[in-house]
Amino acid sequence: MNTFYITTPIYYPNGPPHIGHAYTTVYADVLARFARLIEKDVFFLTGNDEHGLKIQRFAEKLGKTPKEVVDEMAVIYRDYWLRLNISYDYFIRTTDSVHEKVVMSSFEKLYRKGYVYKDKYGGLYCVDCEKYYLPGEYVEVEGKPYCPIHNKPLEYLEEETYYFKLSEFKDYLLEVLRNNKIVYPEEYSLEVISRIEKEGLRDLSIARPVERVSWGVKVPFDPNYVIYVWFDALLNYITGAGYATDLERFEKYWANVHHVVGKDILWFHTAIWFSILKGLDIPPPKKVIVHAFLINKGLKIGKSAGNVISIDDLLARYNGPDGVRYILSRVFNMSKDSEVSFELMDAIYNDELADTYGNLIRRVGALAIKKLRGKIYRREVDKKLSEQIMVKMGNYLERMKNYDVPGAIIEIMDLLREGNAYVNNTRPWEKEDPSKELYGLLELIRVSTIALAPVIPSVASKVADEFGFKIENPEKLQLGMLERYNIRNAPILFKKVPAQGNT
Length: 503
Ligand code: MSP
Known about the structure:
Elements: E1 3-7, H1 19-37, E2 41-48, H2 53-62, H3 66-83, E3 90-93, H4 97-112, E4 116-126, E5 131-133, E6 139-141, E7 144-146, E8 155-164, H5 170-179, E9 183-184, H6 186-199, E10 204-205, E11 207-209, E12 218-219, E13 222-227, H7 229-234, H8 236-239, H9 247-254, E14 257-262, H10 266-279, E15 287-291, E16 294-296, E17 299-300, H11 311-317, H12 321-330, E18 338-339, H13 342-372, E19 375-377, H14 383-401, H15 405-426, H16 435-452, H17 457-467, E20 484-486
Parallel strand pairs: 1-2, 1-14, 2-3, 9-15, 14-15, 16-18
Antiparallel strand pairs: 4-5, 4-8, 6-7, 8-10, 11-13, 12-13, 16-17, 19-20
Bound molecules: 5'-O-[(L-methionyl)-sulphamoyl]adenosine.
5'-O-[(L-methionyl)-sulphamoyl]adenosine (MSP) is lined by residues 9-12, 20-21, 23-24, 49, 233-234, 236, 261-262, 264-265, 293-294, 300-302.
Subcellular location: Cytoplasm
Pfam families: Anticodon_3 (PF19303), tRNA-synt_1e (PF01406), tRNA-synt_1g (PF09334)
Cofactor: Zn(2+)
């Protein structure tokens, strides 16, 4: 199977994207670019989650209509993704009419099949999460129920609603979660399984009376109700791939779909999503790749905590998209929250991009131009060096295929350090004809640059261009394939960020 379908969560556009959204999106983009590099047929979907109370209230605050706000925000999100060089194939908006139709027809299909029914509901609700909290799920502050994520009081709501029979899917979910290795890393799968085993599954309210929430997709056979924003949002993954417009295309990509999500939305992307899909006769996704949070001084970075780091600041400080992409990919962690500060990000950028990769390019490029007018002909690569290159490349490929982007990057950084050590040890500047050393080093640079291309695409193509090689499938790389390097320039790729502490 040669397809690779990858998705990000669709984001709530109640503010511009920040470092946390960029973290997920850049990671998904690196996987998409890697898959393209190894010649997969890639479809990369991102977009915005535009309905629901959160957006309705945000618009009210701005004195605009929700539609005006989401239209403006869609432009802003796309612009940030462009500036971060995100290579998405389609940007889905839940207000797209094709999507809305899928939401309605899916709701109706589940209703007809008996998976949706009408009944009363009362409970404690968090507007920011757009969900009801059950006892045990919320925290208490001064005796009052609070949302554990947003640290705000919960509101009591009572309403007639439509329920989705989540409880009917218990056996199906447990079987799929236990046997199919869908959720990655596995610890998250175990978390969901143990929650289902301990708490069981309660039916899920999937509609709101229109007087409460007016901004959303109407229940097709009962216009007094608006469909729950999560039901609406999750379906983006099928609409975006052509479920309603091109079934063949949908099936082709769905067979290999990878959802990248933060751990905050794990439950929605497993218990709820797999059950909706099953109800619609669609197989579960191939993989749900889950990551932990970016935190600052121990708190999840986000609007609620007020500790947001802006993408604009990152782009300005790290000289454009590649620096930012590298840093976010490098601190990426599936299991543990990553504490970030400008101090740490400066150190990664300066030590790895400027002093290790940038420095090697500059040194080898300058030596090649000075000693051999930039023309380096093929020589046999030192056995030890060539072994190091091939071993690191093998490790890199294995890690990338396991979605371990930071691990893959570390392999390549190690290799680049070996490269710098090789320059120091072999002292090519003292040799009359250092072709052998320089050719070996250029091979190391070529392989490393290709490996880093999904993370730092602009810099990688610039190096390939200046040094005269191609960015090609890393699975097919062999050493000694290039007859001649033609070095036109020894660029300074990453200007160091001056030490300025934690600003
Ligand atoms: N709209 C829903 C998702 C619907 S998907 C069918 C939503 N949107 S969100 O705007 O709140 O974005 C949530 C996602 O943004 C998280 O799951 C995570 O991927 C990313 N992150 C936001 N802040 C983050 C951090 N501080 N750290 C890591 N990821 C973060 O939930």
